[in-house]
Structures are given as C-alpha cells and as structure tokens.
Design a protein that fits this description.
It is found in: Cell outer membrane. InterPro entries: LipoPS_assembly_LptD, LptD, LptD_C. Its main location: membrane. Keywords: Cell outer membrane, Membrane, Signal, Transmembrane, Transmembrane helix. The protein starts with 12 loop residues before the first strand and ends with a strand. The radius of gyration is 38 Å and the shape is globular. The protein has a 27-stranded mixed β-barrel. A hairpin with a 2-residue loop joins strand 17 and strand 18. By secondary structure, the protein is mainly beta.
Length: about 850
C-alpha cells in the first residue's frame, strides 16, 4: 500500500467498545469490506455479529425497506450503550435522502438517530435542512431538530429554534420564520425584505399546505400586519385549493371594494375560482370562473354580475347605464385540437349593457388593462398546413363607447379564408417553374341600421350629441348623398366572394439583376340586399336605411368582375466598399397591367376602408387592405433603397419611392360609398413621395422615420417618427405623428401627437417610470367643437410610477391621468385618474388595488359620481 494519507472516501476506521477492548481496521477499498455498506434487500434475519453499520442504523425497529449507505472517517461500536457512532464527515444515504454531520449516533434500543455538528439533511426533491442538532427515527420520518434552517428547491427558507418531525407528512417549526427572499450575501445578519414570523409553522406534506399560528408579517424586520391564523400552499405546489390574495378596488361610482377569491382545484385538469366582492356603494359583486383542460385542448367560462343598490351613481342613458339594476357579463373561450393541423375554437363575450365592463373595471386580456371599446365574439375552424391555411369563422360585436349605436354594428358570418402556395418544378412545367398561390375569401355581413358620417365636418345628433348624422351645413337639412355623406356600414345584408390565382418566378441574370415576372387572375362577385326600412330618430335628426338608395339605386344587386393582370419587377442590388463600411444601393421598378374593371362609382366597401400609403405597400400589387376594392389600369411603382453597414457602428437604411398611374382608370381617384382612396396620396396621376430612414447604431438605440410628401408642393402629408434608447439604467422611447387633414374620408383636422415614456433603474432593484402624451391637434377644435381655446401642447394623458423588484418581491405603484373627449351638447370631457397598487410576494400571492379617482362622468354640466 502506498504511503501517505488516504483521501476521505477511502480512509475508514472502525472501533468496538466493550469490556476495555478495541478493534481497529486500517484503510481499504470501497468494495472490499463492509463499512461502506449496501443493505436492506429482503432476506433472512442476520445475527448481531453479522449485522453491518447500515443494518444497525436502519434497524429492525423501523422496518428496513430500502438500501442504506454509511460513510465516515471513524466508526465506534459501543456494546454497553447499544449504540453505533459514525464520526468525522459522516454521511448516510437512505431512500434518496442524505444526512450529513460531524457525528451521527444510532441508538439500537430506541431506534433513534442523533446527528450533531453542522447537520445537513437533503430530501429527494432537493430541499435542504440545516441544524446544530437533529434527532430522527431510523427511517428519518420522525424526530426533532434544534436551531433549524430549511431551504427548498423553490428557493424558500424556513428557520426555527426547534422543529419536530411528527410523522412522515407533518413537520412543526416552533418560533419560526418563512420567506422566499434570500439572505444578503454581504450582510447575512440583516433581515430579509419580507418574512412571516410565527409562533408555530406546520407543514402538512400530504395536504401540501403551510399553516401559520400567531403570525406577524414583517417588512425589513418591522412588523406591519398580524394574523391569528394564516395558511398558504406549499411552495412546490402549482395548484392548491384555498383562499387567494384579497382584491381591493375603489371607484367613486361603486365605492370601496374588498373581495377574497376562493380557488378550488377540482381535479388536476379542472378548477373553479369564486370571487365575491362587496362594494360599499353598490353591494355584492360576484365572479365565477371555471377552467377545464382537456387532452386535446381547453376551455373556460367566466360569469360575473351585480344587483346594484345605487343606480343614480351612473349617468342617465344614453351617456350611462341610468336606472339599470341588474348588470353582468359572460365570457367563454376555448380551443379544441381536432388533429395536428385542425382546431376548433371560440371566444365569446356578452354584456348586459355597454357601460358595464368599464364601470366595473373588468380586465381586458387583449389590451392588458381595464379598457374596452367594444367586445368581439367569434367561433372558428382553422386548419394549418406546411404552405397553406383554411380559416372559417363568424363574428359578433357589441359597442361599448357612448358613440356606438348597437343596431349599426354588423354581425359577420361566414368569413372564410383559404390560401395555398405551390412550388412549380421547371422540369415538370415545361420550364415555367416559379410559385403558384391560391387565395380565396368569402364574407357575409348584416346590420339592422346603416351608419353614416358627414364629409367636411363633424355633425352629431342634436338630442344626445353622440351619433353621427349628415346635414347640409347651409340649410341644416338632412343630406345623405354621395360626396356630402360617407356610408360607413350597410343596413341590410352584403355578401362578397373573391378567388385569386397568381404566379411569380424570380430570375437572376449574370449581372446580378433580379427579374420577377408575375401574373394573376382575380374573380370577384358580391350580392347586396340593403334594407329600405328601419330608422332611428334623435330629436330632429333621423338615421334611415332608405337613404342608401342614393348610393346604390335599385335594391338586390349582384355584380361580378374578372380581372386578369401581368407584371414585372426589377431589382439591381449594387455593392460598394467605402471607408466607413459596405454600401448596398438597390434600385427597384415594377409595372402592373390590368384592365379597367371597376364596377361602379358607388361600390360597397366594408373591409377595405383602412388605406395608408407608405413604404410597407409601395411595391404591393394591390394597396387596398381588403377584398372589396382592387387596383385598376396600368400602374408603375419605382424607387430605391440604400443600406450602409458600418460594422461596429451599426447600420443606416433609407428608402425613396413613388407610384404612378400610367394608363386606365385610377381606382384611388374613383370613390366608393366610403370615399376610400380619395386624399390617400395615390389619387393623383403621380403619387406622393414615400420615404423611410432607419438608423440603428447598436442594439440599445434605434431611430425610424417614415414620411409622405405631396408630389407637387413637397408639403408634409404624413409623418411617423419613433426613437428608442437604452443607456445603462435608463430606458427611453418617443414617438411623433403628424397626419394631414382628410375631410373627404372624415378627418377634418390635422392630426398631431407626441408621446414619451421612460424608465430609470435608480438602484439595483428600484425603478421609477413615467409617460406623457400630447394631443397637438386639440387647439384646432376651438371654436367649432370646444368652447374654450386649447394650448398647442394639450396633455391628453400622463402617468408616473415607481416600484421594486427582485427574486421574491414585486411592488409597483402607478398613477395615470387621461382625458376622453365627449363631443356632447355642450361639449365636455371626462378626466379619468387611476391609481394602481400591485404587490406580488413569491409563493404567497399577489394583491392588486385599482383605485379610480376620476371626478366622475360629466354631461350637460352635471357631474354623476
């Protein structure tokens, strides 16, 4: 044997104490003798002399059920005391548990194990318990611990002066503390950010619960709340029945509110949350949410509502819910996967009245806030392939703003979309090759009442001051005719179908020029069955379906077109090396030829009313946003983009372009019932100029500017500027928008706005934030629609916030102040002020307290609060 000291794993000694005799064994191999022992396989009972250390510690008293391994520098057998002691870096491995200590003694008569000095017990799940002294049963299922500290794999920490392991499922900590915050590495003597200090902490492993008796919640070591009894789920539990963190709310119309949700884990894939909340001014508001996860999907149903006690707190109809007593909402959403490629789903929300969700601050899952402008309900069937998709769905809407009039909102069913892309191999298509695309759409919609908007002015009914009407500005009489009034929505039924087959192929010549020839065939048909009956009267103003005859003539019209087209796109990227980086200059030209297939000057347009001409659609074959409109005639699009890559200094990209109507009818100068295309920058033979500049020096900074300039005067028609910066602890973003007035499509004033937001990480875990929005158009509204002059920099909304975040705690407080216009009679506005406090304690839950400190709803000089 080599000389020198053996290592810890191979150095072993054993000593038996009896009547003055001692037996010593030298170091030996791990597999050659029995002091590192594997025992516990069921078999015949061994005699005392044949028992190993593992046998003696595991003991017949507890009933050995698994193998045990014992390692130590020295082992002492004491026959008089009937004990076995492992000393010096003692380690015991048993059924996934590891017990480590300076000294471990097993008492055969009692079947107890005593561990002393730097004791550490590691459970199979990774949880660790530290103690000065630990006494356990032979199977580690019972015992007590002095001066204990337990650390779980979920990074939670429990300390106590003493702990008793009553049985395999129950552990009691006396005069203990619980926290999910780590100790300060530099100052371990300091208390954590928060902790629960209790006279007794009981951990029920079979229930997966922690119970606190006579508990105090401490913040930085200072007590701030007392609980005679408190319970929470075990940190390892993701779902556990019980009460959740309370919810606090305040609004002037509802009063202070306090609610405590109860969560019921019905099954591993099913749960129910019940939230009763008492509002001091309105009474008991309740919410019930049921969730169910299936093998092939999920769904949930949420029902909430209230029987109000003080209806007068809300504005009278149509500015508020008035004397409506029973109010509520039903929301359900689900997705069922029928196969790997097909799914069926729904997303439905119905409310008792359009003011309910905003009056009671229901959260909006889409906007991540508490504001709704409308509810959208849909049912769909969707199929997704490698190069195509199928989508069939229906929509229903409820308007939630004061300006919405429900009979004017359309229901859409069906809406069907199909798209498929097919690659053509040249060798199989007589050298044609390229890519074939099929695109199809079928949409049918219906509404009870048509919706209109006056051209060149904002005209609203003279009774409520809410609903758009069309009147002659000179005579004041109704004028629902094309050119004077826009028809936004159809009263009646409208169905439209479109199928488009297109082909394109990219060809690169030896010079690097990229040619893309393309061709398409588009078929469109629509059936209009508008209503001539039905109307709504607001004082002396009337909205009637009969006015639609001014736009469409005879009822029940079917129209269809077949539009073929061919085109060619050319690009020639040129690469140049400069002292500051590589420069790519790419001129682009495109020509598209189609016949004049416009149906009529008063064509229905429901799905293509959003038209913004910018860099994103300059080289599109069709710049309309939907299927109801399509470009006609021969059009050329041309421009160039420049990219300078400055290596470590980022890159600059710029684009400049224009579109021209070469021949045929310019569809953008051919108004439909909604005047879409007019004043778009595309309605003249030579379009406005399109520009874009992007500069990104590195991942922390970016600047993007997009602009459209009048082709004759170079006057600015459209501008969007966005900037973002992240420098050390500071984050900043800003946006400026400036759009010219477009009275022919309903925008009679220039629209300008400026927005800033920032966040400053003051210290490692502390931050402050702020944002402000300027409405730079508000001064235009005086004297036509606002009674007093407005400053150029009118503050539309602003907010400030501060917070703290770390591994165990998230706290924030945010204040927002925003105005919402109400072009009523007389005009007024509501300033909504909200204070939101959020506290999230990891493993304990979160508390949210939205407080609406708005002065109330103002109408006709009367405040309703």
């Amino acid at each position: 044997m080599a000389k020198g000291l053996p290592n810890r794993r191979t150095r072993r000694a054993a000593r038996r104490r009896g009547s003055g005799r001692a037996l010593r064994l030298g170091a030996f191999s791990l597999f050659s003798a029995g002091l590192v022992l594997f025992v516990g396989v069921p078999g015949p009972v061994r005699d005392a002399a044949a028992q190993t250390l593992g046998d003696r510690i595991s003991g017949a008293a507890s009933g050995q059920k698994g193998p045990m391994v014992v390692e130590a520098n020295e082992v002492v057998y004491d026959d008089k005391a009937h004990s076995v002691t492992a000393e010096g870096d003692a380690q015991i491995y048993y059924e996934g548990k590891v017990l480590e200590a300076d000294r471990v003694t097993y008492f055969k008569d009692t079947g107890r194990v005593l561990a002393e000095g730097s004791v550490k017990l590691t459970d199979p799940d990774g949880s660790v318990t530290h103690a000065d002294k630990m006494e356990l049963s032979g199977d580690f299922k019972q015992g007590f611990v002095d001066t204990v500290r337990a650390d779980t794999k979920e990074r939670t920490h429990v300390s106590a002066t003493r702990s008793d392991k009553v049985d395999a499922d129950t552990t009691v900590f006396y005069r203990g503390t619980y926290t999910a915050c780590p100790s300060c590495a530099e100052h371990p003597e300091r208390p954590p950010l928060w902790r629960l200090r209790a006279k007794k902490i009981i951990h029920k492993n079979n229930e997966q619960m922690l119970y606190f008796e006579d508990a105090t919640f401490e913040l930085y070591g200072y007590p701030i709340a007392y609980f005679p009894f408190f319970s929470t789920a075990d940190p390892s539990v993701k779902r556990q029945s019980g009460f959740l963190a309370p919810r606090i709310a305040y609004r002037s119309t509802t009063g202070y509110g306090l609610g405590t949700p109860y969560f019921w884990a019905i099954a591993p894939n099913m749960d129910l949350t019940v939230t009763p909340m008492y509002l001091m001014r309105q009474g008991l508001w309740g919410d019930v949410e049921f969730r169910h996860r299936l093998d092939n999907g999920y769904y949930y149903i949420d029902i909430n509502g209230i029987h109000q006690q003080a209806d007068s707190a809300f504005a009278p109809q149509p500015w508020g819910s008035g004397d409506q007593t029973n109010r509520g909402a039903v929301t359900t959403q689900g997705t069922i996967w029928l196969s790997q490629k097909w799914k069926f789903g729904w997303d439905v929300m119905r409310v008792s009245d359009k003011w309910y969700v905003n009056d009671y601050g229901l959260p909006n899952p889409v906007l991540n806030g508490n504001f709704y402008s409308e509810t959208s309900s849909s049912v769909y069937l969707n199929g997704q392939g490698d190069r195509g998709y199928f989508d069939l769905r229906g929509y229903s809407f409820q308007g939630l703003s004061n300006f919405d009039y429900q009979p004017q909102l359309a229901a859409v069913w069906p809406m069907w979309d199909y798209n498929k892309t097919i690659d053509l191999a040249p060798e199989k298509t007589h050298g044609i090759g390229g890519q074939l695309e099929i695109d199809a759409n079928l949409t049918s919609s219906s509404a009870a009442l048509a919706s209109y908007q006056q051209v060149g002015a904002i005209e609203i009914d003279n009774l409520y001051g809410l609903h758009p009407v069309c009147n002659n500005p000179v005579t004041g009489k109704p004028d629902y005719t094309p050119g004077a009034c826009i028809l936004r929505g159809i009263g009646g039924n409208y169905t439209s179908g479109t199928v488009e087959l297109s082909w394109k192929r990219k060809i690169i010549d030896p010079l690097g020029e990229v040619f893309t020839p393309f061709a398409f065939l588009r078929a469109n048909g629509n059936y209009l069955n508008y209503s001539t009956s039905g109307s709504a009267t607001f004082g002396s103003d009337t909205i009637a379906n009969a006015y639609q005859s001014n736009y469409f003539g005879d009822n029940n019209q079917f129209q269809g077109t077949m539009t073929p087209g061919v085109g060619l796109e050319w690009r020639y990227p040129l690469l140049a090396r400069t002292p500051i980086g590589s420069l790519v200059i790419e001129p682009i030209a495109q020509i598209i030829a189609r016949p004049n297939s416009q149906i009529s000057n008063t064509i229905v347009n429901l799905d293509a009313q959003s038209l913004v001409f910018d860099d994103s659609n300059l080289f599109e074959w069709d710049k309309y946003s939907g299927y109801d409109r399509f470009e006609t005639g021969v059009r050329a699009n041309y421009g160039a983009q420049f990219t300078l890559d400055m290596d470590k200094h980022g890159y600059v990209n710029a684009m400049f372009g224009q579109s021209a109507q070469v021949a045929g009818v310019n569809s953008y100068n051919t108004p439909d019932a909604a005047n879409v295309g007019l004043e778009s920058g595309l309605n003249t033979p030579m379009s406005d100029y399109i520009t874009r500049v992007t500069y990104t020096p590195n991942s922390n900074y970016s600047f993007i500017a997009k602009a459209r300039f009048n082709e004759a005067t170079w006057a600015l028609a459209h501008l969007d500027v966005t900037a973002r910066a992240h420098y050390g602890p500071i984050e900043f973003s800003g946006q400026f928008a400036d759009y010219e007035q477009q009275p022919m499509i309903g925008y009679i004033y220039r629209r300008e706005g400026l927005q800033f937001s920032s966040k400053y990480n003051v210290l490692e875990h502390y931050f402050v934030s702020g944002n402000i929005n300027f409405d730079l158009s508000r001064h235009y509204y005086y004297p036509d629609y606002l009674p007093t002059p407005q400053p150029t920099f009118s503050i539309a909304a602003w907010g400030i916030g501060a917070g703290y975040t770390d591994d165990c705690t998230n706290f924030s407080i945010n204040y927002t102040n925003a105005i919402s216009d109400n072009f009523g009679n007389p005009p007024a506005y509501v300033r909504n002020q909200t204070l939101l406090l959020t506290l999230d304690l990891r493993t304990l839950g979160d508390i949210k307290a939205p407080i609406m400190v708005s002065p109330g709803q103002i109408q006709d000089g009367v405040r309703y609060n």
